[in-house]
Task: inverse folding
């Protein structure tokens, strides 16, 4: 498992550069507009895309059949991608909290944590939706589905905010945060279970 | 447990292809060549051994252990090189070393780097910049660097020039010298297999035509060149396959059943393969 994660991180190193440039660009934009939401959203999307990119690299190299000839189980293959997603979600969470603090001069950090947390959790929910499909169809074929889920997701948020006027009040979110976190964990587990079932049956 | 690999009645059905009841035994310390033309079922057999695809019937035992549902530990003892390099493009030699150190318990960076030097694999370049031959050498170096008891090499020498292939054959010979380690080598390059194999298994259209000791094969079969008239007198059960030309008949005969006076020349593995397959058709 560790070897697989190392392989993915080395593979994604190049993307890290692009990530850094985007980070700088949106950081400057955010500081100038005193708004961290754009930066937050972009970072969350990038976090969600990392495991997908890693899978695309694997697919291109036909890595899976080779990896499975090593002491690597199908479970390791599946879980390493989820772990990678969680890892990036956590990194992006801290970056977003820091950035929120920087833009808002360190005020209302609870809000910052909630804001960053919601974004990272959304990224994980998105991953939970797409990963089983990607394990089933591959990244190349799953791309359309991935985009569809992304658009439906953003569309849903926009629709909800139009109808409700704004996000739920902070107090509600605050009260719900433990519940939200648990819900996302359950979704992740269900998704990982499903991916594993799919991958176990896959002829590599 | 004296066998490195035992396949028993291994069967896999695809739409228009069927690997049909493949059985073979590779004793410890030996090299077996899996011979057959493209699409004969060599890669399918190897994928079944490695549990990459599920079998419809049959069993696979590696180093005495039935490997179906046996977890992943048994693969510590197996070194694999497939017919293409499956490393992601961005990796360098040191990255491969780093990754494998975290995958194989018995990974030996020293041995790996030694093979890398022997194969002249450049340290500074990414795998993308490697030639096809270098990529294949890299996967072979990986297969050799974790003290595997069984090497499974699927067409791994196919893309290499004769010099490189010869060097690799020497390395494979060295590898099995301790009589504990074994190699299953699939190839359609008969000259390679003839050089190093102890056993040869010929597979054709998903079926095994024979699995025998190489020396026995070379001893048993011979090439008979004679006129059409002479050929009429040759008992059919002694003939494995034949080819007619304007000068007469060339046939692969079984020396055990052929008792004629005509000169029977030594048959190479290629002749043995070709005539067996022709006869099968």
Result:
């Amino acid at each position: 498992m560790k070897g697989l994660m190392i392989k993915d991180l080395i593979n994604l190193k190049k993307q890290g550069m692009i990530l850094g440039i985007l980070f700088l660009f949106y950081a400057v934009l955010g500081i100038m507009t005193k708004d961290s939401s754009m930066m937050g959203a972009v970072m969350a999307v990038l976090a969600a895309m990392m495991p997908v990119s890693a899978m695309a690299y694997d697919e291109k190299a036909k890595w899976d059949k080779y990896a499975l000839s090593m002491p690597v189980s199908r479970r390791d293959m599946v879980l390493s991608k989820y772990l990678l997603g969680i890892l990036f979600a956590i990194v992006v969470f801290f970056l977003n909290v820091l950035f929120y603090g920087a833009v808002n001069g360190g005020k209302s950090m609870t809000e910052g944590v909630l804001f960053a947390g919601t974004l990272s959790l959304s990224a994980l929910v998105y991953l939970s939706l797409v990963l089983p499909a990607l394990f089933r169809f591959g990244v190349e074929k799953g791309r359309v589905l991935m985009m569809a889920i992304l658009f439906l997701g953003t569309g849903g948020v926009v629709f909800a905010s139009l109808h409700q006027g704004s996000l739920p009040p902070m107090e509600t979110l605050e009260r719900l945060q433990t519940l939200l976190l648990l819900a996302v964990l359950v979704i992740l587990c269900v998704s990982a279970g499903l991916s594993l079932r799919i991958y176990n049956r896959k002829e590599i | 447990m004296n066998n490195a690999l035992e396949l028993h009645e291994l069967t896999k059905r695809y739409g228009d292809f069927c690997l049909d009841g493949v059985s073979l035994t590779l004793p410890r310390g030996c090299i077996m060549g899996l011979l057959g033309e493209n699409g004969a079922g060599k890669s399918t057999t190897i994928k079944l051994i490695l549990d990459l695809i599920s079998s419809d019937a049959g069993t696979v035992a590696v180093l005495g252990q039935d490997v179906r549902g046996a977890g992943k530990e048994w693969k510590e003892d197996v070194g694999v090189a497939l017919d293409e390099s499956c490393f992601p493009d961005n990796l360098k030699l040191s990255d491969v070393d780093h990754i494998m150190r975290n995958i194989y318990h018995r990974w030996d960076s020293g041995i790996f780097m030694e093979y890398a030097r022997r194969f002249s694999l450049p340290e500074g370049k990414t795998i993308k910049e490697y030639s096809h031959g270098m990529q294949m050498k890299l996967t072979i170096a990986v297969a050799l660097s974790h003290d595997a008891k069984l090497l499974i090499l699927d067409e791994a020498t196919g893309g290499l020039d004769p010099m490189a292939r010869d060097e690799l054959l020497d390395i494979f010979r060295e590898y099995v010298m301790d009589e504990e380690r074994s190699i299953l080598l699939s190839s359609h390059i008969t000259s390679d297999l003839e050089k190093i194999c102890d056993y040869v298994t010929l597979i054709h259209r998903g079926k095994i035509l024979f699995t025998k000791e190489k020396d026995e094969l070379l001893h048993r079969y011979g090439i008979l060149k004679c006129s059409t008239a002479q050929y009429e007198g040759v008992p059919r059960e002694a003939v494995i396959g034949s080819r007619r030309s304007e000068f007469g008949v060339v046939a692969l005969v079984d020396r055990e059943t052929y008792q004629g006076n005509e000169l029977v020349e030594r048959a190479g593995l290629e002749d043995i393969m070709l005539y067996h397959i022709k006869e099968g058709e």
